[in-house]
Specification:
homodimer; alpha/beta; 21% strand; 435 residues; 2 domains; Urease, subunit C, domain 1
C-alpha cells in the first residue's frame, strides 16, 4: 500500500493548483489547514509530503442526501413505475435486510464516495449503528438518521421514537467528531403531524439535525393539501421541522412562497437531480426561486437504487444541466455555483466547516488530475470539474487531514467490493427463499 | 507497452461474460468475429489471448453526432446564451483554427472516445482531411463530413461544393475501410434549398451518407415555417435529404408527423441529450414518437464545447434519464434500449455492421470491468452500464479485431494529451493576438 495512506501526522501538499495559482497547503496534526501559499511549507515540519504537481485542489465534496446501504440494491430493479418499483421490488428485499448487510453496504458506499471525491454524507436508513461502524472504518464524515416512519399509527410511532433515541445515544457514545446523528422524519406522507412534532422537539432538545424528504412528487403536494389543507413545507413548519439544522431532500414541487419560507427558516434544500429524472418526478427543484430567496442549496445523489451511483462529480453535471433544461435558461446554475452546491453549501448544511480551502478549515481536500483527458485543455477548472469530468478524475482524498485515497488507491478496496457483492447476493437469495 | 496492444493476428477473448453467460470469443485475422461460445477457442489458433475473466463484453459504442476537433475548446466558454456563446466565443476562436489544430484535436477526441468505449463516430467539421489522418492513426472508424454552410450565397455555395468534393475525393483515395465520408449540409437555417438539393444529389450519386442538424431549437422550426412555409423535416425532404443514409442530429422539436416521415425515409435520428440540456433547447427529442414510428434512433455526444465530454457511457445515462424526465414516464427508454441506441442503432446508421456481438460481425468489442464499483452488485449488466458506470469502467477496446486499448492503456496517450493542450493554448493565443 502507498505509504502516504498509512502515515499519520502533519502534511504538506506541495505545488498544487488552486484557482489557477500554484501553492502549498500545510495541514497540522489535528487535520486543520494551517497555511496556504508559496511559503506554507515553512509553517510546519511536515511528516508527509504529497506532490501536488499536475493536481488541482478543490474542497472535499459533501453528499447531503443518500441512503448509503442501498448500494447493495444497485441495478436490482429499474425502469418501473415508482409505486410498483417500491412495492414489488425494493420493500420485499429491504424486509430481509440485516445489520450486517447495512454494514457491508455502507462501507461499500463509502468506498464509492471516496473514489469520487466525497468526504461527508447525510444518510437516512435502518440499522444505523452498523452504518456508523462502517463510516468509522472508512474515515469519512457522516450525519446518520434513522428513517422515522409512523404511518399515523401510535404504536409504530412509539417504536420509531425508541429507535431514534437509541441511535442518538449510540452515536453520542462513539464520541467521534466525524460521526454525527440527526432525526430522520421520512416525509409528510409517511409521518403523522404528531410524529413530526416529536422529531422537531427532540432534535431541538438534542441540538441535532433533521433530515427529511420534501415535495419530491406532485402527488405528495396534492395529497398533503387534501389531507391537511396546506402544502408540505407549511405542514413541516407548523410541526417545527424547518430549522437551520434541517436538510430537506428533493424539493422539486416547492412553490415560490415555500422557497422563501425555507430560506427564512435557514433550511438547506438538497438537490437530487439524477434521482428526480430517473423517477420522472416531472419538475426540477426551482433553484432560481431558492437562490433568489437566499436559501442554502446543496447536492445529493439519493440512494443507489434510484440514481444508480454515488458519484457527486457526475451529480454536479446533472444538476447544472437539469436546471438549464427544466427552467429553460442556459445561464442558470453555472459551473461555479454547482461546485459551491457540492462543497460549501453541503458543509454548511452538515456543520462540517466552511467547505472551502481556507486557513483554519478542516483539511477536507480533493486532488483532481490536471492531466486527465477531462481536464485538457484547462481553460476553466470549474467548468471541467462540472461538465467534463466524473469521479474518475479524483486522485487523492483527505478528510480532516487523513489520506483516505491516494493515487486512486483505497485500503481494502477489493475486499470491500467482494463483501458487498456477497451481501447483495445473499440478500436476494433470502428474499427469494421466503417468497 | 502491453504486448496485447502491439500484437497483430487472430485473437481469443477467453472466459468473458456476455448476457450473464461465460463464453469465449474468437476473432479471425481479418478482424471478424469467427465464433462465440464455450468451444469458440477450437475454431482458431489464436495469436493473441485476452483474459476475459472479470470482464463483461458489449458491442463497441458508436457516437453518431460530434465535432471531434472541438475537444480543443472544452471549457473555453460555458453557461452563456447560445447566440452570445457562438458569436463572442466559439466563432472568433474557430476563425483561427488550422489543419494542425484539427489533427491534434481529432486525435485527442479519438483518445477520449476509445477510453470510454467508442469505436466509431460520425463527425462534422473543417479541415477534415486532417481529421481523417487522426482517425487513421488512432485505429477507429469514422464517417467524416465537411460542414457545408452557404448562408444562401451562391459564391459561398460554390466554395462549399468544391470543399465537399475535395474531401470526398481525398477520403476515397485513402482506401481505408475504417474511414468513410459523408456530405454535411449543416442545417436548414445555414444552407439554402439549392445547397441542400446539391448535397442530396451528390450524396446519392456518390452513394455516401448525409449528416445534418435537424430541429435542435424551437427558433429553427419557427423561422423555417416563416421562411419556407413548412417545418424543417419537410424542407429537408423536399430537397431530397431524408434517406436511409441520413443521420439527423438533435431532432428535439420534431412533431409527430415529422417523426413518421423520418421513419418512412429510413433516416437515423441521433439523440444528443447532454448538449440539448446544456444549451437549454427546452424540449427533449420525442423518442416515444420516433420509436412508435419505427425510426432508427442512435446516440451522440455533440462536440466537447457543448457537452463537455465525449463519454458515450455517460451519454446513455443522460438519454435514459432525460427521456423519463422530459416526457414524464419512468418506463421510457429503459437500459436495454439505451444500449441499443449507443451500439446497434449507431452501427446501422454508419453502416459499420450489425453493432452486435454475433458471428460474422466486425470485432468491435468493449470489455467492461465486472469487478468495478459501478458493476457491483451485478444484478443486471445493462442497468449498471447505463445508470451506474461511466467510461471509466471500459478496460479493453477492439475495433475490427485490433486492440486500441487494453487495461486502460492507449499507445501514446501522454503525448496526445500534451499536444492537444499545446494546440488549444496556441489557438487562444493567436485569437487574442489578432483581436
Amino acid at each position: 500500500m502507498n505509504e502516504i495512506i498509512t502515515a499519520r501526522g502533519s502534511l504538506l501538499i506541495a505545488g498544487v493548483t488552486i484557482d489557477g495559482a500554484t501553492v502549498d497547503i500545510a495541514v497540522d496534526e489535528k487535520g486543520t489547514i494551517a497555511a496556504i501559499g508559496k511559503d506554507a511549507k515553512k509553517t510546519i515540519d511536515a511528516d508527509i509530503v504529497i506532490d501536488g504537481s499536475d493536481r488541482i485542489a478543490v474542497p472535499g465534496l459533501v453528499n447531503t442526501h443518500t441512503h448509503a446501504a442501498m448500494s447493495l440494491l444497485r441495478g436490482y430493479a429499474d425502469d418501473m413505475i415508482l409505486q410498483d418499483w417500491l412495492s414489488q421490488k425494493i420493500w420485499p428485499l429491504e424486509a430481509h435486510l440485516t445489520g450486517d448487510d447495512v454494514y457491508a453496504g455502507t462501507r461499500f458506499a463509502c468506498l464509492e464516495m471516496i473514489k469520487s471525491g466525497t468526504v461527508a454524507f447525510n444518510d437516512m436508513y435502518f440499522f444505523m449503528d452498523r452504518a456508523a461502524a462502517a463510516v468509522d472504518d472508512m474515515g469519512m464524515r457522516a450525519t446518520l438518521a434513522y428513517g422515522f416512519i409512523d404511518l399515523g399509527m401510535e404504536e409504530k410511532r412509539e417504536a420509531e421514537i425508541k429507535a431514534t433515541e437509541t441511535l442518538v445515544a449510540h452515536v453520542r457514545s462513539l464520541d467521534n467528531p466525524r460521526i454525527r446523528v440527526a432525526v430522520g422524519p421520512h416525509s409528510v406522507y409517511t409521518v403523522s403531524p404528531e410524529g413530526l412534532r416529536w422529531c422537531a422537539e427532540y432534535a431541538a432538545e438534542q441540538e441535532i439535525g433533521i433530515h427529511v424528504h420534501l415535495s419530491e412528487t406532485e402527488k405528495e403536494v396534492v395529497d398533503c393539501v387534501a389531507r391537511f389543507g396546506k402544502r408540505p413545507a407549511y405542514l413541516l413548519d407548523d410541526c417545527g421541522c424547518l430549522t437551520p439544522r434541517t436538510v430537506a431532500a428533493h424539493c422539486c414541487w416547492l412553490d415560490e412562497a415555500e422557497c422563501r419560507l425555507l430560506a427564512e427558516r435557514g433550511v438547506t434544500a438538497s438537490h437530487n437531480p439524477a434521482s428526480n429524472m430517473k423517477l420522472a418526478v416531472n419538475r426540477a427543484m426551482p433553484y432560481h426561486w431558492l437562490k433568489a430567496a437566499g436559501a442554502n442549496v446543496s447536492l445529493g445523489t439519493d440512494g443507489c437504487s434510484s440514481n444508480n451511483n454515488l458519484d457527486l462529480m457526475e451529480e454536479m453535471k446533472f444538476a447544472a444541466l437539469l436546471q438549464k433544461f427544466a427552467w429553460n435558461s442556459p445561464t442558470l446554475l453555472p459551473a461555479g455555483e454547482a461546485i459551491e452546491m457540492a462543497t460549501a453549501a453541503g458543509a454548511r448544511a452538515l456543520g462540517t466547516g466552511p467547505g472551502t480551502l481556507t486557513v483554519g478549515a478542516p483539511a477536507d481536500i480533493v486532488l483532481l488530475d490536471a492531466r486527465a483527458v477531462c481536464n485538457t485543455p484547462l481553460f476553466h477548472a470549474d467548468s471541467n470539474a462540472v461538465y467534463a469530468c466524473n469521479g474518475g478524475a479524483v486522485m487523492t482524498v483527505l478528510c480532516q487531514g487523513r489520506v483516505l485515497m491516494h493515487e486512486r488507491e483505497v485500503p481494502g478496496e477489493e475486499e470491500i467490493v467482494r463483501e458487498a457483492a456477497a451481501a447483495a447476493r445473499s440478500l436476494v437469495d433470502r428474499a427469494q427463499d421466503s417468497s
